[in-house]
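Appendix C: a fully annotated inverse folding record. The material below is reproduced so that readers can follow the format used throughout the book. The structure is listed first as tokens, followed by the designed sequence.
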């Protein structure tokens, strides 16, 4: 055990004492520093932290009781100590004999006695550390378990004093609480006896044989589990489906084992907010079942446990150890983050997912705080919602700013931890919701565009007819006027403005009633070759260098060529406008798959949204870029930053891409440039080699 010590401080006035101590330990890694008693007045160096201090009081015969008391009061010498004294130093030995945690040796000292004293100090320190660790684990476990009482409102259940009344409460209050808390469509409770379960559903008793059920062995294990997919064809699930009259898609089964014997089973069917019950539900169910079983067992045992033989009940091992291990494994495996903290935001517990979601690179330290998981800016915002006096806090969200993409969000809830009827900690449960936020934004944008499309269509129809009349009358007036008249210029201006309005109305109709695509197989570089020559003059006038790059294995796309030409034309014109002083325009394409975020197709009209093969077309410029506030609005109809713009160009681009079952995203940084990425569905095999780079 001596090899667990690396730093020893030796205080002695005797030269040979240092050589003697060194000779006792044949360990090159051991660091022993020697100081004289007179050196203590100057203090010890701050970079040396001894684990054991050896005071050689025998080397200083003039060392008196008062000097020793001053020495012991100094916090510098708080480490465990070994005191070497002469047999004649009676007063010093009396003081040291009652000092806790110290070893008192008599001069002369041999190697075995000194090593034994050091081993004793190391052993005591290990015991103290293990004791502190055990107390901390027990405290955290109590805090974690207390939240179930709050959510399920189990106070009525705990007030039951007769074990025969427990089943009735489980079939009413506790069942309803589990259904509401875990978001199940419905549920029931059944008694388990051998290979049969029985209960009451809609005031009708039922009995169901489980003789051929593959799920039956799991009911006896006493641990909750989820049944879905092919297992829904099991005789147990099929029978419960007939009893309840519902089609079971997912089932959370919660056995309650009393003294390792499953007495009753909760069945929760079809989660309302998801396709299946989750790991969160499983963890909650496990804790709830353990609490129910514990109270049930206490009632059966009575106040002094006189009704049962505990060694016989626990003959298969200590079940609570298995339950604790299962709980630890569940919390480590779930994909949502958990942080438990006290009133000073000191972290009492956190699981691995908390660190993974928040991408926190935590250093190993004795104490962690909630602020260690967030940037200072984010913690300033979120700390206002962590006050223990304001809990619970349900379904909040925050946009994380540091070291993340600009649209990184987490959703979180904070629950109080009760201990002895007082809130002593909070539990923050959170997960990433960036994908959900993107889907919400997409739905809002689609609804807004649909509404504005209907509105613009109606306005365009109402305006077009009188506008045609105005233009006709102006043309007649122009023909009848003397060409030398000074007023003919006014008529020409009227006709030009009417033509401009007519172009705007055509854009309205294009947006409001987009033409359905007539797709066919084509290579994207064939389309770009049709568009780029039309803009060659603009490129030369604006000193813009065009670069094209296509992957060798580029697949053909299945699109309407004319509509995709319009997409390219609008995006390239926007890029040219963003580079008034010249720059570089890069067009590239490669094979791709759809990103992880799911498509939004509320009306199920885009059959190709489920395609798995795409090409990614990128149009990038080196222009002035787009601000963050503007970037969220660029696809909104009638929004424009151009003096003569209609605000419909990018809206039409967005609609065309969506009608093809594709996606479009924009990435921009002010002063650096803008990049549009377009996903278009691809079918078929590679038929020709595209040009690699065209400049």
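Designed amino acids, in order:
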């Amino acid at each position: 055990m001596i090899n667990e010590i690396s730093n020893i401080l030796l205080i002695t006035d005797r030269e040979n004492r240092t050589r003697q101590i060194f000779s006792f330990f044949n360990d090159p890694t051991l660091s022993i520093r020697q100081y004289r008693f007179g050196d203590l007045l100057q203090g010890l160096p701050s970079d040396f932290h001894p684990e054991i201090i050896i005071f050689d009081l025998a080397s200083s015969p003039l060392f008196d009781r008062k000097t020793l008391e001053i020495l012991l009061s100094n916090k510098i010498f708080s480490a465990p100590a070994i005191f070497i004294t002469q047999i004649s130093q009676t007063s010093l030995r009396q003081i040291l004999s009652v000092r806790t945690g110290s070893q008192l040796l008599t001069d002369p000292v041999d190697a075995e006695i000194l090593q034994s004293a050091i081993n004793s100090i190391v052993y005591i320190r290990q015991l103290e550390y293990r004791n502190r660790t055990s107390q901390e684990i027990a405290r955290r476990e109590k805090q974690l378990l207390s939240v179930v009482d709050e959510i399920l409102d189990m106070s009525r259940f705990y007030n039951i004093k007769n074990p025969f009344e427990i089943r009735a409460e489980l079939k009413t209050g506790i069942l309803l609480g589990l259904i509401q808390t875990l978001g199940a469509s419905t549920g029931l409770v059944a008694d388990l006896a051998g290979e049969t379960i029985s209960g009451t559903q809609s005031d009708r008793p039922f009995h169901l044989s489980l003789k051929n059920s593959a799920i039956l062995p799991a009911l006896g294990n006493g641990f909750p589990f989820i049944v879905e997919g092919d297992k829904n064809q099991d005789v147990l699930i099929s029978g419960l489906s007939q009893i309840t009259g519902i089609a079971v898609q997912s089932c959370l089964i919660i056995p309650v084992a009393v003294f390792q014997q499953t007495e009753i089973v909760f069945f929760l069917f079809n989660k309302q907010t998801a396709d299946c019950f989750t790991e969160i539900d499983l963890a909650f169910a496990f804790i709830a079942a353990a609490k129910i079983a514990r109270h049930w067992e206490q009632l059966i045992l009575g106040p002094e446990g006189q009704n049962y033989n505990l060694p016989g009940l626990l003959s298969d091992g200590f079940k609570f150890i298995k339950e604790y291990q299962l709980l630890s494994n569940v919390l480590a495996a779930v994909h949502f983050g958990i942080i438990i903290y006290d009133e000073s935001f000191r972290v009492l517990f956190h699981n691995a997912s908390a660190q993974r979601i928040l991408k926190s690179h935590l250093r190993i330290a004795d104490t962690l705080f909630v602020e260690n998981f967030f940037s200072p800016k984010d913690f300033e915002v979120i700390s206002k919602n962590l006050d223990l006096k304001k809990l619970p806090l349900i379904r909040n969200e925050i946009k994380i700013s540091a070291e993340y993409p600009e649209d990184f969000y987490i959703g979180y809830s904070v629950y109080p931890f009760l201990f002895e009827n007082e809130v002593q900690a909070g539990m923050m449960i959170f997960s990433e919701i960036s994908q959900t936020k993107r889907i919400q934004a997409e739905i809002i944008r689609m609804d807004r565009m649909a509404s504005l499309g209907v509105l613009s269509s109606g306005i365009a129809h109402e305006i077009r007819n009188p506008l045609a009349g105005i233009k006709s009358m102006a043309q007649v007036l122009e023909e009848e006027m003397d060409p030398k008249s000074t007023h003919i210029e006014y008529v020409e201006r009227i006709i030009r403005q009417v033509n401009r309005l007519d172009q705007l109305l055509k854009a309205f109709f294009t947006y409001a009633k987009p033409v359905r695509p007539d797709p066919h197989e084509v290579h994207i570089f064939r389309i770009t070759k049709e568009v780029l020559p039309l803009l060659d003059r603009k490129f030369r006038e604006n000193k813009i260098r065009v670069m094209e790059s296509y992957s060798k294995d580029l697949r053909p796309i299945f699109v309407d060529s004319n509509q995709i030409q319009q997409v390219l034309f609008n995006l390239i014109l926007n890029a040219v406008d963003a580079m008034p002083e010249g720059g570089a325009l890069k067009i590239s394409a490669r094979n791709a798959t759809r990103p992880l975020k799911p498509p939004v197709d509320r009306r199920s009209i885009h059959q190709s949204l489920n395609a798995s093969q795409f090409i990614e077309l990128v149009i990038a410029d080196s222009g002035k870029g787009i601000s963050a506030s503007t970037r969220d609005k660029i696809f909104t109809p009638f929004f424009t930053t151009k003096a003569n713009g209609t605000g419909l160009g990018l809206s039409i681009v967005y609609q065309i891409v969506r009608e093809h079952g594709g996606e479009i995203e924009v990435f921009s940084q002010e002063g650096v440039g803008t990049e549009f990425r377009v996903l278009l569905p691809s079918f078929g095999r590679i038929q020709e080699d595209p040009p690699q780079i065209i400049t």
